[in-house]
Amino acid sequence: MSRYGLAGQSCRQQTETAAIEEIARLRREPGKDIVVTGSVTPVQELLRAGLLDELRLLIDPVVVREGRKLFEDEGDRLTCTLLASHVHRTGTISATYAVTG
């Protein structure tokens, strides 16, 4: 069985595309907030699609030299406004940002 669909997309890419389309559809309908939790890849895709109004980040006091980045080095600039923050006893920071541009 091929891993690729008719348009040359992998099953994963087709699933991500379908999920983004569904979230876009849900946003057009009246109702309450949509909360999406996830790792770097879904958040990046939703940001690129302009579907996130707010980011809630947990920032741990750890410096790493390698690994996946939430925000790429290149690309469009993301402007955010800090709405709330809290520093936990462990040093972890909970920060809520409005995505403004």
Please provide a written account of the structure.
This protein is an alpha+beta fold. It contains two helices and three strands, in the order ααβββ. The protein has helices at residues 11-28, 40-48, and strands at 54-59, 80-87, 93-99. A hairpin with a 5-residue loop joins strand 2 and strand 3 (93-99).
List its traits.
3 strands, disordered N terminus, 101 residues, 21% strand, alpha+beta, three-stranded antiparallel beta sheet
Low-confidence stretches: 1-6
Main sheet record: 3 strands, antiparallel
The total of beta strands comes to 3
Helical run tally: 2
Rg estimate, integer Å: 16 Å
Could you tell me how far the N terminus lies from the C terminus, measured between alpha carbons in angstroms?
42 Å
Physical arrangement of strands within the biggest beta sheet: 1-3-2
Helix/strand class: alpha+beta
On the 0 to 100 scale, the average pLDDT is 81
Could you give the order of the helices and strands? HHEEE
